[in-house]
Amino acid sequence: MVDDIFVSRIHARIEYRQGRFVVVDTSTNGTYLLTQGEGSTCLHRDERSLQGQGFIGLGREVDPQSPLVIHFSCEP
After folding, report:
1. Which is nearest to 27 in space by CA: 5, 12, 48, 42?
2. What is the pLDDT of residues 38-63, one digit of tens each?
3. Distance separating alpha carbons of residues 76 and 57, to the nearest angstrom
4. Contact call for residues 60 and 29 (beta carbons, < 8 A)
5. CB atoms within 10 A of CB 62
6. What is the pLDDT of residues 28-39, one digit of tens each?
7. Any residues with CB less than 8 A from the CB of 43 and at least 6 apart, and which?
8. SS (H, E, C) the chain
9. Is the pTM of this model over 0.85?
10. In whole angstroms, what is the distance from residue 22 CA to residue 4 CA?
């Protein structure tokens, strides 16, 4: 649970499909991804594969130093 005014009650989910992890945004304010070696991406009612390492921000831009950020690491 992430307690923040920009986070929806059911904000996003991570699914495992056909050997890969996918983040699915179902929120009002969007889900932000910051993947190592890439720029920031905003998902709004959309989905994206998670690859490598990075951060997920719920409802706002990713701040890697924030206690609200979600860290992820997907190794092959």
Report:
1. 12
2. 889 999 999 999 999 999 999 999 99
3. 23
4. yes
5. 22
6. 999 999 999 888
7. 12, 23, 25, 30, 31, 32, 33
8. CCCCCCCCCCCEEEEEECCEEEEEECCCCCEEEEECCCCEEEECCCEEEECEEEEEEECCCCCCCCCCCEEEEECC
9. yes
10. 23
